[in-house]
Design goal:
The chain has 455 residues and is an alpha/beta fold. The chain contains 17 helices and 11 strands.
């Protein structure tokens, strides 16, 4: 059901986009169409997974973020970042030097998101007691939460009613600073995001009114800034900022980072296309009984986030080596921080199903539309060439039934209709220009795309 406007961190630069279809073909929710020669995103279908940004050959996709200058509005300027941020840097740069560079950038306090990870997992395990059917699904990845909410609404009740990890870390940081005498109104919390989905989750949370996080920062942008500020040697002791970081916490955002904490029958799946295939089977009761599901949109978990600069496999290896230097979570007990207060703030509302992949809210009309789709597919070639501006023939059939496209959008049917004198050539040309733009078919040896691409 379509409701209020959804916030998306992903945007399209129409000046750069030339409608190459790379993004459209890789989108796991078929949220992209080509209109007038550029990619357009269906705001209701998009889950901000970022596959389009990764696939775009001309960087036409970008993410919105807060300006770093906003941190100066607060006396206590807290930067929150997941441990994968440290994994971006070569081993020649110590974590102490990276922390010191963050202080030089203007932050007063530094917290890694995974420091209170044990508390969150304990809280998630408690929530599993209220679930009567099916596996408990982690709420860690906002892209997956949005995917389930819109495409697999029957599974929404299985999502753990717990806030996102960055909100947990934010509450943890605020409690720490309040113990030191800080007023909460003086604290600014800035989260460094590895992906567009987490950026969207800060600006428009799924299961809460608003996030406690003040602003969100692009991890790639921060990485580049830190590289310019890294000191030659450590001159400041920053170890106090890491005193509650654990071995399991560092590995939390990687595959099986959560599942390994959940000792029962659990499964971890990374990569949104793999997740989609699994959820299809889960919804059809084609998988064995499970107690816990860890689902992450990016390959190799957050190490494969679209806003990371480094190779995801090197990032995983660096984090695994780093984790060995830290104690186990069970050996860490944050002093003075009232655990019960932080855990109480972790509880969120249940994720409400918001199906948008339905043909019609009325079941009878939906069945009629399904029959029309099947009939249309009998006439379409089944080549999935994307020449119609939709990712495949089935998507085109859906668009036609929903009144968003025409049979003549299929270039094969269009040629057939021209031959049968059902469509005039000038009308057929105008139809192609409506999809691909007016100058798309003019000869130009330097045009973008193809073998002679000039970019």
């Amino acid at each position: 059901m379509k409701g209020k406007t959804k916030y998306h961190a992903l945007k399209v630069d129409t000046e750069k986009c030339f409608g190459c279809t790379h993004c459209m073909k890789i989108c796991p929710t078929e949220a992209i169409r080509i209109v007038d020669g550029v990619a357009t995103i269906d705001q209701y279908r998009c889950v901000d997974c970022g596959n389009c940004l990764r696939a775009c050959p001309v960087d036409a996709f970008y993410v919105e973020q807060n300006q770093l200058s906003h941190i100066e509005d607060f006396k206590y300027r807290v930067v929150l970042f997941p441990s994968v941020f440290i994994g971006q840097f070569s081993e020649i740069y110590s974590e102490g030097r990276i922390y010191e560079a963050l202080l030089r950038l203007g932050f007063t306090h530094i917290f890694e998101v995974e420091q209170p990870a044990l508390w969150l997992m304990e809280s998630i395990k408690e929530s599993s007691q209220d679930l009567t059917e099916g596996p408990l699904i982690s709420s860690f990845c906002p892209a997956i939460v949005r995917l389930i909410q819109s495409k697999y609404p029957s599974l929404a009740r299985n999502i753990a009613p717990r806030k996102a990890p960055h909100d947990l870390a934010a509450h943890f940081a605020i409690e720490q600073l309040k113990m030191q005498g800080a007023n909460e109104s003086e604290i600014g919390i800035f989260y460094v995001s590895p992906c567009s989905a987490k950026m969207a989750a800060v600006n428009q949370p799924v299961a809460e009114k608003e996030s406690i996080v003040t602003g969100v920062i692009n991890m790639k942008d921060l990485y580049n800034r830190i590289m310019r500020l890294l000191p030659a040697n450590e001159t400041t002791d920053t170890s106090g900022f890491r005193q509650y970081l654990s071995r399991e916490g560092i590995l939390w955002s990687l595959p099986r980072g959560e599942a390994s904490w959940f000792k029962k029958r659990s499964m971890a799946i990374d990569g949104i296309h793999n997740v989609v295939k699994f959820l299809e089977r889960l919804e059809n009761d084609e998988v064995p009984k499970l107690d816990f599901l860890e689902l992450k949109s990016c390959n190799q978990g957050c190490a494969g986030g679209i806003l990371l600069t480094g190779n995801r496999f090197l990032t995983v290896e660096r984090l695994q080596k780093r984790a060995l230097r830290y104690p186990k979570a069970s050996q860490i007990n944050p002093e003075g921080v009232r655990k019960e207060i932080v855990q109480k703030k972790l509880i969120s509302d249940n994720v409400e199903p918001r199906p948008v992949f339905v043909l019609d809210q009325d079941r009878t009309r939906a069945l009629e539309k399904m029959k029309k789709i099947n009939n249309i597919l009998c006439h379409l070639p089944g080549i999935d060439c994307a020449g119609c501006g939709a990712p495949n023939c089935h998507a085109l059939a859906e668009d036609i039934v929903q009144g968003k496209a025409r049979m003549t959008d299929c270039i094969f049917l269009q040629n057939k209709f021209i031959k049968e004198l059902k469509v005039k050539p000038d009308k057929a040309c105008a139809n192609l220009e409506r999809i691909w733009g007016k100058k798309r078919f003019e000869a130009d040896c330097n045009k973008k795309g193809g073998r002679n691409e000039g970019f």
